[in-house]
Each structure stands twice: as C-alpha cells, then as structure tokens.
Automatic annotation (TrEMBL), chain A:
Keywords: ATP-binding, Nucleotide-binding, Transport. Residues 1-229 form the ABC transporter domain. SUPFAM superfamilies: P-loop containing nucleoside triphosphate hydrolases. Gene3D superfamilies: P-loop containing nucleotide triphosphate hydrolases (3.40.50.300). This is Abc transporteratp-binding protein. Signal peptide: none annotated. It comes from the Bacteria. GO terms for molecular function: ATP binding; ATP hydrolysis activity.
Length: 248, 214
C-alpha cells in the first residue's frame, strides 16, 4: 500500500517552477529526496503539507485526498521542517502539553520512553537545545502519536557526524516494522547511502529520476568517462549532473 | 469555538501585552481622559500578539497540527473576539463606578456611557476588518496590517471625542438615565457593525490565507 501518492504536482513562482512531479511512497521505506539548494525539494514537501498551495495535481495520503482530509491525514503524519523553530522561549513540557491534546491516539508512555532514549530534558526551553536535540524532540512527538508517515526537510544538514549517524540509525529502526515510512530531503548524499531504500532526484523543479537506490545509481553510470576506474557514487552523479564550468 | 486551539493560543502563542492591554478598564476612573483610547489599546495588544506569533513561528506550528488550514485563521479570529469582549466586560464595572463618583462631565471627551460602548465597538470592528484581512494576505506583515487598521480606528475615535464637544451633541456625552436611553440605538448599531465586520474579517482572511505560501 502507498502511504503517499503525488500526481502531476505543479506550482509556479515568478522565477521558479515545479513541473509535474509524480512519485509514490510505499509503506516501510526510507525515501530520500535529493537535489542541490534551490532545486525545489522544500517546495515539494511544503506542497504535500498544504503549506504552499499548488496549481495542479493531487496529493493522496493514506488513500485519501490530503486537501479534503487534512485533519485525518495530519493525525498520522509527523513533520520536521529544517530551520524552523517554534516558541523558543517555551519549555518542551509546555509545548508537549498543548500538542498532545490535538492527537486522538497520543501515547504518553511512548513519549516518555522516546524522551528518555533521546536524553530530552522537558524542563529545557527550545532555545537551550541544539539543532539535533530539536530534531529529536520533533521525532519523539511524531512517534508518540503513532505517525505512519514522517516528512523531514533536511533533518541532517545542521548535525555533527555522530548525531547524523545516530539519526539515520533511528530512521532505520522506525521503518523496521514495515508500516511506517520516512520521506526526507537532503543534499548530503552519504545519508542516502546509509539509509535510503529509494531516491528521488529533483533538478530545477523537475523530477529527473525516482528509483530504488541500486537501480538509481546504476542508471546514471552512463555519466562515467575514461578517467573513472570505479562506479560513480551518488556524490559523483550529482556533481556531474549539476556541475557548471566557470571561466574567469 | 475550538477550545483546543484556544488553549494553544493562550498557553503558547499569546504575548503578555495582550493581557495587559485588555486590562485597561481602570483608566475609566481617571477624571479627565479621552476614554476611547481604551479601544485603541486593545488594538495595540492584538497587534503585538500577532507580531509575537510571527516571531515564534506559531503559524507554522499551528498549520502542522491536525487541523484544517482555515482553522489557523479561526484561532487568531477567536483571540481578537475574546480579548475584545473581555476588555469591554472588564471595563464596565469601572464605567459604573465612574458614573457614581463623578457628577461632572469628562472634560477631555466622551463619558463612559452607553454611546461610548457603541462607538467603541465601531472602532474595534473597523480595526479588525482591516488588520486581520491585511495580515492574512501574507501571514507575515503584521506592521502594515496594524497601520491599515489603526488609522481608520483612530479617525473614528478622534471624531467621537471631538463630536461630543459640540453643544448639539451634548446628550452623547451625558451619563443621565434618560440620555443614556436615547443613546441605546448607537450601542445597537455598534453591536451590529462589530458583528458584520467580524464576519467579513473571518471570510476574507480565510480566503486570503488559502493562497499564502508559508
């Protein structure tokens, strides 16, 4: 079963356009959305979440049209937007107290378990937490209302290598049961090598390729030249697809 | 009313100034004072509150909760309504005390009488309709939204304060029982005007917010 289906998603800005994006997120998978800065990754995620209205296309989540079933879909959705902090002056405890009232299936015992696991101090204010801890708090909240789909916008880009590795490990644990999926955008290709099952590549607002990781890497090997002894990595693929030549 | 959203508004999103500016009722005990300022204070409180919401990314947070997009507007609309209803109800005892204590007219402007509350509702109504609809054009530009609202609101306030100095309109400034009975239609018009403006503010803000790229 697909948890998310994006059909022909298009959105026009004065200087940028998302062009007919199509992809599916099956259950139990980690899907990486890659592309350079400004490629349209965040716009796609925001369109899925109805944060930016789109002109054409449809977003089906858990088998229902998202825009017509916002409350139902969001009950089973966990979201972390990169670089957006809420209520910096508030304690985590106060934010949790309010947040949990909105979720019918809030599991307080699970929340306490994740808080302990992530070493979250509920008496700390948001501004006192590092970026990594804020991401972990959001994950704890998402998991405590039994979210089936987790959407993260560049969750790893502000993290040190240890926290990044830890976070990817958490991702793998989350999807292990097979009913939850994670869609996350990143421009750090090593994240994908470790955790992603499938990769969606966005360039200038267009979806270039969406495929399982191995197939994805394989399909870009045509970019190899005579100097390449080994197969191209994801990093090489992105650099060759996007690379510009400057002359000064 | 959505109580979960209101709980979020008052426990997480609200700025302390909203409460302070809603508690200005005791100013009605100042012997000579332009009392319409009380309503303008409420406008300032709501402006600071919305600006604070923007700074704390409250709109994003709310939009992520399992609610409809239009409920983001509804939450802010409810805060306007509740803070202003509270501000008015809280000030009434002070208006009554004022009536008992001061036997002479308020020389600065209108007295705290029935007409005063009628005009006050007009001031709040006109502020809300411009302020809320302008803010939800972007969900970001609170300053320009405040200016759009406070200018017409202040003009009404100034007009009222000036009007009562003319001998023909002395009955508007009176706190005698018979004059206040005569002022009753102004209160009724004020209530209808406020309700109408709030309805327009709600509908237009929802329409505008639906087009905003967050």
């Amino acid at each position: 079963m697909n948890l998310l289906e994006v059909h022909d998603l298009s959105k026009k800005y004065p200087n940028f356009e998302l062009k007919q994006i199509n992809f599916n997120i099956p259950a139990g998978k980690i899907i990486g959305l890659i592309g350079v800065n400004g490629a349209g990754k965040s716009t796609i995620l925001k369109s899925i979440l109805n944060l930016v209205p789109f002109e054409t296309g449809s977003i089906q989540m858990f088998g229902k049209e998202f825009r017509d079933n916002e409350v139902f879909c969001k009950q089973q959705l966990g979201v972390v937007l990169g670089g957006v902090d809420f209520y910096k002056e508030k304690k985590l405890r106060d934010i949790t107290k309010v947040t949990k009232t909105f979720y019918g299936n809030w599991d307080q015992i699970a929340f306490e378990k994740y808080s302990k696991m992530f070493n979250l101090d509920e008496n700390k204010k948001v501004k006192e937490l590092s970026f990594g801890m804020r991401v972990k708090y959001s994950i704890a909240v998402a998991l405590s209302h039994q979210a089936k789909l987790l959407i993260f916008d560049e969750p790893t880009s502000g993290l040190d290598p240890v926290s990044r590795d830890e976070l990817l490990e958490i991702f793998l644990q989350i999807v292990k049961k097979g009913d939850t999926s994670i869609l996350f955008s990143t421009h750090i290709t090593s994240d994908l090598e470790k955790s992603a099952d499938e990769i969606i590549y966005i360039k200038d607002g267009e979806l270039i390729k969406a495929a399982p990781k191995e197939e994805f890497i394989e399909s870009f090997q045509y970019l190899k030249d005579d100097t390449d002894k080994n197969d191209l990595t994801l990093d090489d693929i992105m650099v060759r697809m996007e690379g510009k030549h400057y002359e000064f | 009313m959505n109580f979960k959203l209101l709980n979020k508004e008052f426990r997480l999103a609200a700025h302390p100034n909203l409460y302070i500016f809603s508690l200005m009722g005791p100013l009605l005990l100042v012997p000579a004072y332009p009392y319409t300022i009380l309503f303008l204070f409420s406008c300032i409180g709501n402006y600071v509150n919305l600006m604070y919401s923007r700074e704390t990314n409250d709109i994003y947070f709310t939009e992520m909760l399992p609610i409809k997009r239009s409920d983001v507007v509804k939450a802010k609309w409810q805060v306007l309504l509740i803070s202003q209803a509270f501000m008015i109800l809280f000030s009434i005892p002070f208006a009554l005390i004022h009536g008992q204590v001061f036997k002479t007219n308020n020389v600065a402007g209108i007295d705290a009488n029935v007409a005063y509350y009628g005009f006050g509702l007009m001031i709040l109504g006109i502020f809300n309709v411009f302020f809320l609809t302008e803010f939800f054009k972007t969900a970001y530009k609170a300053g320009i939204a405040f200016l759009m609202g406070i200018i017409p609101a202040s003009l009404i306030a100034i007009a009222v304060e000036v009007l009562v100095h003319f001998p023909n309109f002395a009955w508007l400034d009176s706190i005698s029982g018979s004059d206040q009975l005569k002022q009753l239609p102004i209160l009724v018009i004020g209530i209808i005007f406020y309700a109408l403006m709030m309805w327009v503010a709600y509908k237009v803000s929802i329409k505008r917010f639906a087009k905003v790229n967050l």
